[in-house]
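Same chain as my last thread, 231 residues:
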Amino acid sequence: MHDSGSKTVLGQVIAPGTGEAELDAVIDIACNHPSPARHIATKLVRRFVSDAPPPELVDRVSAVFAATSGEIKPMVRMILTSDEFNAARGARFKRPFRYVVSALRAVGADTFGHEPLIGYLGRMGNAPFEHPAPDGYPDNAEPWLGTLLWRWNFAAALSANKIESAPVSIDRLVAAIGGAEPASLLPHFIGRSGTPDELRALKDFGDGVGKDQGSAGLVGLILASPAFQMY
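reply #2:
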């Protein structure tokens, strides 16, 4: 049922009678068009740098796509060595899956990822393999802001060792970090020293409503904090 006549794709004529080579020609024509380069470059820059991809960086990554016939490694290398990437630390909002995984890693949870972790992801809107459209789960912040309450609930339950499939030992973790003081805890979880406002909030919590919760309460608050939600 193959059409053996000539074909015109994006203004380029494909000669008839070449069989499978015609499909290769279609792919070459599509990949050499500027649109795929910009589309893929934009998605990569959005993933690594910002919800609003800097146009100049997108241009540079698009040029790498064109020069390398779509090689992904050089495109990612361009992004990771860019000034825009260096300046974007802490500017991206974690999708629920990334948030849950980073929290499990940060507290050293012993888990294989079964229920109820999958249940938490579902309530956050990011259950594995359940997005109905072919474009995948959104990679920008706005669609995920409506399920923050479930992130906070997850943070509190995880730090309090109340998630059956993900046991943790906060006391062992705190001892390995070097103490339960906010100034000691924060760098482990957010990769930098805490700001004065962040440290003050943790101290006020520890001295107030979280006094009876001890280290677990502080860790829960850090996991629920804006700083840990970002990467």
